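Schema walk-through. Below, the input block comes first and the output block second. Nothing else is stored per chain. Lengths vary across the set, and this one has 284 residues.
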Amino acid sequence: MRDCVRLLGNTIDKVDLHTVGERICAFVQAASPHQIVTANVDFLRLGREDPHFRDLVNTADLVVADGMPLVWASRIRKDRLPQRITGVDLLLECSRLAINHDYSIFLLGAGPGVAEEASAVLAARYPGLRIAGTLAPRLMPGPPSEEERTIRFVQECKPDILFVALGAPRQELWIRTHMHRLGVPVCIGVGGSFDMLAGRVLRAPSWMQRFGLEWLFRLFQEPRRLWKRYIVHDLPIFARLMLEPRARRPIGRDMFANPVPQFDKGQRTSVDIAPVSEIDARTA
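--- output ---
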């Protein structure tokens, strides 16, 4: 049974970065596909809008808190999440593990050239790191032929850990739809982490991260793209999160009555039906 906190119907694992590293090593050793989700306030909003997406998150193999509001809410409930764990944190920790255990990683997504730049940063920071490949398809999800080429390329590279940078909910849906065909032991959606590693987007100073103000730093960088998400969509969810009645009980995967089915190639959930342009406008 996993030890989790339940926030607005979503489950977040009570793990620190060290424990996450241990879980990732166990997943790789198991050699079967696993999905790790980096959840934040926007994930809670998406889950309230679409129960299928909430169930996808709740049936992932590991869900970490990528947002200080989730940590604060757990403290209010006196059922503390140990720490915030971001996509960048996971990229760096997995690169360290890859060096120590001879794992290989693959970077998929982001804009043209970004994955390559991010991989170069990781390779410089972790000499000897095995990068199985990088790929930035023009459109994901894309036409069946392009999807098939992407899947085949990842299969041929045979990475141990796959990072997917498409923004939520697309990256989580894409991973869940294809993870069993990909055959990668660990698949993680990391949002804009490639851009941060590549220096395309600046990361907030450490003191702003500690005080949960990274969203404000990002808003100042990209106000036209992010103001609606942060102010209109996420602020009400943040308020509900802080005011939600305390709920403390251990949570196991068997508690979920509506697990997400394994999707066949080309099948979509209701979240995935929206046009790509519309999804882009609301994702990180």
